[in-house]
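Q: what does this look like with 4-fluoro-L-phenylalanine bound?
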Amino acid sequence: MKREGFATRLGVLTATLGSAVGLGNIWKFPYMTGQNGGAAFLFIYLAATVVVGLPIMIAEIMMGRRARANAITTWKKVAPDNSGWMLVGVCGVLAAFSIMAFYTDVVGWVFRYIVQAAAGGLNSSDPKAAEAVFKATVSAPWASLAWQWGVLALVSTIILGGVSKGIEKTTKILMPMLLGMLIVVCIRSLTLPRALDGLAFLFNPDFSKVDGEVVLMAMGLAFFKLSIGMGTMMTYGSYFREDANVPLTASRVMLADLTVSLLAGIAIFPAVFNYGFEPAAGPGLLFMTVPAVFSSMPFGQAFMTLFFVLTAVATIGAMLSLFEVPVAFMIESGLGWSRKKATIATAVGLGICGIPATLSFSAMSDVTLFGLNFFDFYDYLSSNLLMPIGGFFICVFAGWFWGRERTEADLSNRGALSNRAVIALYSLIVKWITPLLVLLVLLKGLGAF
Ligand code: PFF
């Protein structure tokens, strides 16, 4: 049977970008920046994206494209003599599960905010009122679970329909619209009287607040943002066309992704300071500030609704890519499973794993693992442990075992591209710099020294 793949070169770019852009930009980046002191965190995150994120993304896509297989089988093919490497793929599938468990919960919040915005329930710039609405939304156990399962059903339906056509086309139109909307919020936010305080918070660094844990968080965010370290980009790489320029595509995705995150930051922080929200408010930050910004402008309610609709759309590409990791594995695992069976198994598994994450804000708020509720635990486990560990082994393999010749052939499309300098730089970084940095940050963040 012929393996599926992305049809066009543009499709390759939009699907990869679709995986990267999502809640990470609009929800996670702003709230983590707010919790970790602002600009200093932003700069560390930027550095981590360039020196750690980009090389790993290139390595993953390269390996997946050569192996033309899912995240676990790829290891079997590229390291046939040592099956220990397969554990990296197994870690990846675990990471995909633990991300989806809380990601689908937050997407559920976004969907509920669409409904509430349209009904006029969010028209207030008062921090107390915004907080009350957010708390009421997340702490209703049955409604939260129902929305989460609804989100899972939606993603499963799209995945069942085969990888892309519908979604590729929709995201091609809706992504630019999201960008347009973000710019509208930015303009509104920047014209608020106390906008400058927000910009200073975002761009004027105070490195005294930075410790090992903060650097680990920033690096974890870089992994989460670029969907790397866990086999997603490997799986997508396996759908890449032979003529796609891997380093260029990865660099474009990284830059576009950073742009969206920065716009989200510029949209949110001026409003946070203007209306007196708490920058360290955590996961509720987006859901409290965005309604405040829109409430104070003409046609705010309509714009607010549209904003949440577009955010929901942006999350779909990311969720599809997360789903695809276990689904592709199950289809190719030799069990003879169809796409349908694999998708249903993944959705049911996630529906169950997601329960404790979703109930972390209500019935299970007191249940903790290592001092974290389940929602935070899944997040910490994936971003701060599984993805950096996976990323470490991926770059060690790409840097030390892939070999110069194969790297050159793969990244230049067998000499069709003239990008020798780029390949030399990549080889140097992926061999010496990235693995060392990831290891140091991981150990330091975990308190090893
Ligand atoms: N990159 C996505 C985001 O920032 O929202 C999240 C994500 C998608 C993480 C796919 C990991 C992944 F494999």
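The mean pLDDT is 92. Residues 19-20, 22-25, 99, 224-225, 227, 230, 232, 318, 321-322 surround 4-fluoro-L-phenylalanine (CB under 6 Å).
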